[in-house]
């Protein structure tokens, strides 16, 4: 269970990373739409896991490029939140597969052959 402080810190990092990917890191993401779906912060606030979701045909290449430049992204984050926090956390990026998993499960469920339920005669009681 995360503390209130961790949750506030995670929300701040999530917001600022989103702005960084939209405005400052265009050379990394190009035309891809990158969404930070969740940020989890360690209890000592020194490490942050950011889960990224991509709206692009080849997200693997974009993710690898972001992962290679995480020091640059951390530096941009430090410029934004350096005055309000003591520690700029080390960043670790992970792909968020929940959207693709949901799509896969939707396809599996729609392809099931479920026979209709037998109709039961309902008797009305007066």
Automatic annotation (TrEMBL):
Job of this protein: One of several proteins that assist in the late maturation steps of the functional core of the 30S ribosomal subunit. Associates with free 30S ribosomal subunits (but not with 30S subunits that are part of 70S ribosomes or polysomes). Required for efficient processing of 16S rRNA. May interact with the 5'-terminal helix region of 16S rRNA.
Pfam families: RBFA
Species of origin: Algoriphagus sanaruensis
UniProt cross-references to InterPro entries, sorted A to Z: KH_dom-like_a/b (IPR015946), RbfA (IPR000238), RbfA_dom_sf (IPR023799)
GO function terms (MF aspect): ribosomal small subunit binding
Region forming the signal peptide: none
GO cellular component, one term: cytosol
Keywords carried by this UniProt record: Cytoplasm, Ribosome biogenesis
Family the entry assigns: Belongs to the RbfA family.
Name listed for the protein in its UniProt record: Ribosome-binding factor A
Gene Ontology BP, a term: maturation of SSU-rRNA
Compartment(s) where it occurs, according to its Swiss-Prot or TrEMBL record: Cytoplasm
Gene3D superfamilies hit by this protein: 3.30.300.20
Subunit field text: Monomer. Binds 30S ribosomal subunits, but not 50S ribosomal subunits or 70S ribosomes.
């Amino acid at each position: 269970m995360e503390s209130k402080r961790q949750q506030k810190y995670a929300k701040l990092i999530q917001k600022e990373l989103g702005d960084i990917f939209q405005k400052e890191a265009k050379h990394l993401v190009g035309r891809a739409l990158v969404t930070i779906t969740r940020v989890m912060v360690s209890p000592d606030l020194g490490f942050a896991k950011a889960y990224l979701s991509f709206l692009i045909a080849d997200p693997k290449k974009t993710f690898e490029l972001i992962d290679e430049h995480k020091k640059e992204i951390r530096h941009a984050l430090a410029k934004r939140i350096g005055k309000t926090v003591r520690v700029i956390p080390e960043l670790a990026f992970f792909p968020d597969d929940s959207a693709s998993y949901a799509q896969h499960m939707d396809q599996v469920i729609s392809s099931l052959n479920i026979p209709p339920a037998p109709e039961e005669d309902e008797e009305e009681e007066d």
